[in-house]
Design brief:
The complex is a heterodimer of chains A (about 500) and B (about 170). Chain A has about 500 residues and is α+β, with helices and mostly antiparallel strands. Helices cover about 35% and strands about 25% of the residues of chain A. Chain A is built from 16 helices and 22 strands. Chain A has helices at about 10-25, 40-45, 65-75, 90-95, 105-115, 115-125, 140-150, 175-190, 250-265, 295-305, 310-315, 395-410, 420-425, 430-435, 440-445, 460-480; strands at about 5, 25-35, 45-50, 75-80, 100, 155-160, 170, 195-200, 205-215, 220-235, 235-240, 270-280, 285-290, 335-340, 340-345, 350, 355, 355-360, 365-370, 375-380, 385-395, 410-415. In chain A, β10 and β11 form a beta hairpin. In chain A, α4 (about 90-95) runs antiparallel to α5 (about 105-115). Chain A is globular. In chain B, a hairpin with a 2-residue loop joins β5 (about 40-45) and β6. The longest helix of chain B is centred in the middle third of the chain and has 13 residues, at about 80-90. Chain B folds into two domains: about 1-90, 2-Layer Sandwich (Glycoprotein, Type 4 Pilin); about 100-165, Beta Barrel (OB fold (Dihydrolipoamide Acetyltransferase, E2P)), CATH 2.40.50.100. Chain B contains one helix and 16 strands. With about 170 residues, chain B is mainly β. Chain B has an eight-stranded antiparallel beta barrel. The chains are: A alpha+beta (about 500), B mainly beta (about 170).
C-alpha cells in the first residue's frame, strides 16, 4: 500500500481524505495557503506544508509546486479531492510523469469526458441516452433554427466548454433564436475562451439524478446506486439524498446500467459520477460525467455502508475492487445538507470571518463532514462551504426528521450560515412528496427572500429571545452598580463578547 | 425592577426584570433565570421550560442569538434609552442617511445607480465579487443616492462605505 499521500485540497474534503488515510495507516500530508495556516485540515494531517499565498491560483492550483513538494517529501500518491486540480487532465499527466500515483482516473478518461460535445458524441456511440440535440457546435443561425424546430422548442443553447450556468440560454421560438445565440456565444467566449455552443432540448421539469460508480484498473465495474440532487441554486447543489424517491426499481436498473456503459465508454477507473436529467415520465438523459470524488459522496456511503475514499486509494494502488455488485445493497435512506457561509436574505452574499463558536451535532444516524472548528477563519478566497450534515434513517421520513433535529443542535457563530433555510426546505410539500425538481428553490424559495420564508411557528422563540436579551442587559447594568465589588458573584462581568 | 425594550424581527417587546427572579412579559409574570455556560452559550430557565442558545456579537446592546436552528438579531435598550432613541429618530427623520457598506471585502463589478438616482428598499444596487461569486447588494433603504465613494473595478475592504442614500 502507499506510504504517504499528499492531499492537494483544503476544507472538509481534505479532512475526509485524512480520515481514510489514517484508517489505512498511510501518512497524510496537507498543503495549505497563507490564509489556511491554522485550518482544520492542517491540524488533522500528519504533515503539513505551506504551498503559497492565499489566492488559489498561487497555492492550491500551483501544479508545479505541488508536484515538486510531493517528490521532495517522498509522497507516493496525490489525492486531488474535488474542485481545484481534480479534473485537470494535464495535471494528472504531470503527476504520473513524476512517478507519483494519481488517486483518480487516467488523464485520457478526463479528457474524453471534459468537452461537452465530445462527451455527448461518445455517449451517443455507446447508446447512453443524451438530451435530444446536436453533438456538434452550431455554426450559423439558420441551421440552428432548423435543428431547434426538429427537436421542438423550448431549446437550450449551451457552451461546449462550459459549466456553472455560463453561456447558457433558453430559447422559446425562432424569433428569440438570433439574440440568444449571439449572447450565448459571447458569454461562452468570455468565460471559457471558446464560442462553440450546441443545442439541446429543454427539459421543463427535470430531476437531477446521478449514479456513483467505482471501477478498478482490471476492468471491473460496480455502481453504488443513484443520488438525487434536485435541490440546487444556480447549479450549486444544496440538499442531496440517496436513494431518489422518484426512481423505481425498473428505472434504477436502466439508469445504473447506462452509468456503467458511460464509464466503460471512456475506459474509466477509480470513483466517478454520471449525472442525468430525469423527466417526469422517468426517461433520463446523460448530462455529464464528474471524473472525481463528489461533495455528496457521503449519502451513498451511508446507504451502502461502503467507504468510497478508501476504495479510491486501493484502486489507485492497483488493487481489484473489494466488492462485487451483489455485495452492494441499499440500506435505508440518507440526506445531506450543505452548510454554506452565506447570508440567504442578503441575496446569498458570502459571509467571511472567524468562527467564534462551533458545537457539533451528533446522535443516532448523524454524520458531519466539516472543514471548520472553533476559531477557524473563513477566508474570502475559496468556496464558502463550511460543513456537510448527513443524516441516515431507515426510511426517507426518518432521515428528514433526524436532519431537522440535527440542524437544531448544530451551532455555528461568527459567520452567517444558510442553516435556518433548511428548516423551510425540509418541510415543503413538494420536497416531502418527492415531486420537487431542479427549479424547486428558484420557483418556491427565491420569491420568499428576504425574510418571508421565516416561519410563523418560530414566533414563540421571539419571546424567548427577548427575555434572554433583557436578562443579559439587566446583568450588565448590575455589573455597573457593583463595579467596585471584586467578590461579585455576577458571572457576566468577566465575559468577553465579540 | 428594570424595564427593557427589545427589538426582534422588527417587533418591539417589553420585558420587565424583577428582583425576585421573575420577568414580566405581556402581562404575565414568569420565573426566569439565565446561566452562562461558555463565552458563547447560555441556558434560559423560563417557567417550566429550558432553552439553550448560542450568542454571537454583543456590542452596544445588539445581541445575536442562535436557538433551535434559527438566528435572531436583537437590539435591547432600557426604557430610558428606548425613549431617547425614539426621540432622536423622529428628530432625524427629515434627513435620513443610510450608508451602504461592503459586507465583505471584494471587487466592485458594477454600480447600478448614479448620484441623484432614486432607489427602493431591497432594490439591487451594486455587484460585488467575492469568493469567486458575483453578489448582488440590495439597498437597505429607499431614497436618493447622495454620494458614491468608489468606482467600478475598485477593491473595497469590509465595512467600506460604498455609497450613501438619503
Amino acid at each position: 500500500m502507499f506510504k504517504k499521500i499528499l492531499i492537494a485540497n483544503r476544507g472538509e474534503i481534505a479532512h475526509r481524505i485524512i480520515k481514510a488515510c489514517r484508517e489505512l495507516s498511510i501518512t497524510s500530508v496537507a498543503i495549505y495557503s497563507e490564509a489556511d495556516v491554522n485550518a482544520l485540515h492542517v491540524r488533522r494531517a500528519d504533515e503539513a506544508y505551506l504551498i503559497g499565498p492565499s489566492p488559489a491560483s498561487e497555492s492550491y492550483l500551483n501544479k508545479e509546486k505541488i508536484i515538486a513538494l510531493a517528490k521532495q517529501i517522498g509522497a507516493d500518491a496525490i489525492h486531488p479531492g474535488y474542485g481545484f486540480l481534480s479534473e485537470r487532465a494535464e495535471f494528472i499527466k504531470m503527476v504520473e510523469e513524476a512517478g507519483i500515483a494519481f488517486i483518480g482516473p487516467s488523464y485520457k478518461s478526463v479528457e474524453m469526458m471534459g468537452g461537452k460535445t465530445d462527451a455527448r458524441t461518445l455517449m451517443k456511440q455507446h447508446n447512453v441516452p443524451i438530451v435530444p440535440g446536436t453533438t456538434e457546435p452550431i455554426t450559423n443561425i439558420e441551421s440552428g433554427k432548423k435543428i431547434a424546430n426538429e427537436i421542438g422548442y423550448p431549446v437550450m443553447l449551451k457552451a461546449a466548454a462550459g459549466g456553472g450556468g455560463k453561456g447558457m440560454r433558453k430559447v422559446f421560438s425562432d424569433e428569440e433564436f438570433e439574440t440568444a445565440f449571439t449572447n450565448a456565444r459571447n458569454e461562452a467566449l468570455k468565460s471559457f475562451g471558446s464560442d462553440a455552443v450546441y443545442l439541446e432540448k429543454f427539459i421543463e421539469h427535470p430531476k437531477h439524478i446521478e449514479v456513483q460508480i467505482l471501477a478498478d484498473k482490471h476492468g471491473n465495474y460496480v455502481h453504488l446506486f443513484e443520488r438525487e440532487c434536485s435541490v440546487q441554486r444556480r447549479h450549486q447543489k444544496v440538499i442531496e439524498e440517496a436513494p431518489s424517491i422518484a426512481v423505481d426499481d425498473q428505472t434504477r436498473r436502466k439508469i445504473t446500467t447506462a452509468a456503467i456503459d458511460a464509464a466503460k465508454a471512456c475506459g474509466y477507473y477509480n470513483a466517478g459520477t454520471i449525472e442525468f436529467l430525469m423527466d417526469r415520465d422517468k426517461s433520463f438523459y446523460f448530462l455529464e460525467m464528474n471524473t472525481r470524488l463528489q461533495v455528496e459522496h457521503p449519502v451513498t456511503e451511508m446507504i451502502t455502508g461502503f467507504d468510497i475514499v478508501k476504495e479510491q486509494i486501493r484502486i489507485a494502488y492497483g488493487e481489484k475492487l473489494s466488492v462485487t455488485q451483489n455485495d452492494l445493497q441499499i440500506h435505508g435512506h440518507a440526506i445531506e445538507c450543505r452548510v454554506y457561509a452565506e447570508d440567504v436574505d442578503n441575496n446569498f452574499a458570502p459571509s467571511t470571518g472567524k468562527i467564534t463558536h462551533h458545537r457539533l451535532t451528533s446522535g443516532p444516524g448523524v454524520r458531519i463532514d466539516r472543514g471548520i472548528d472553533v476559531m477557524s477563519e473563513v477566508p474570502i478566497y475559496y468556496d464558502p462551504m463550511l460543513a456537510k450534515v448527513i443524516c441516515w434513517g431507515r426510511d426517507r421520513n426518518e432521515a428528514i426528521v433526524r436532519m431537522k433535529r440535527a440542524l437544531c443542535e448544530y451551532q455555528i457563530c461568527g459567520v452567517t450560515t444558510n442553516m435556518p433555510a433548511f428548516n423551510w426546505m425540509l418541510k415543503q410539500k413538494s420536497f416531502l412528496d418527492g415531486t420537487f425538481d431542479i427549479n424547486f428553490l428558484e420557483n418556491e424559495f427565491l420569491p420568499l427572500i428576504p425574510d418571508k420564508w421565516k416561519d410563523q411557528s418560530t414566533e414563540y422563540l421571539e419571546d424567548i429571545v427577548a427575555v434572554m436579551a433583557a436578562l443579559i442587559k439587566n446583568s450588565d447594568s448590575e455589573v455597573t452598580v457593583t463595579a467596585n465589588n471584586f467578590t461579585s458573584s455576577n458571572n457576566w462581568r468577566t465575559q468577553q463578547y465579540e | 425592577m428594570n424595564e427593557f425594550v427589545i427589538t426582534v424581527n422588527n417587533k418591539k417587546k417589553t420585558v420587565r426584570v424583577n428582583d425576585n427572579g421573575t420577568v414580566e412579559l405581556e402581562g404575565k409574570v414568569i420565573p426566569s433565570s439565565i446561566t452562562k455556560v461558555s463565552p458563547h452559550s447560555l441556558i434560559l430557565r423560563f417557567g417550566d421550560n429550558v432553552y439553550e442558545a448560542a450568542t454571537s456579537r454583543i456590542n452596544n446592546g445588539e445581541i445575536g442569538f442562535l436557538i433551535d436552528g434559527w438566528y435572531f438579531d436583537t437590539t435591547v435598550r432600557t426604557r430610558l434609552q428606548e425613549t431617547a432613541y425614539e426621540l432622536q429618530k423622529n428628530k432625524g427623520k427629515t434627513v435620513h442617511h443610510t450608508e451602504v457598506k461592503a459586507p465583505m471585502p471584494g471587487l466592485l463589478i458594477k454600480i447600478k445607480k448614479k448620484i441623484g438616482d432614486h432607489v427602493e428598499l431591497g432594490e439591487p444596487i451594486l455587484i460585488l465579487e467575492a469568493m469567486k461569486m458575483e453578489n448582488d447588494l440590495r439597498s437597505p433603504s429607499s431614497g436618493v443616492v447622495k454620494e458614491i465613494n468608489f468606482q467600478e473595478g475598485q477593491s473595497v475592504e469590509k465595512g467600506a462605505s460604498i455609497l450613501v442614500i438619503e
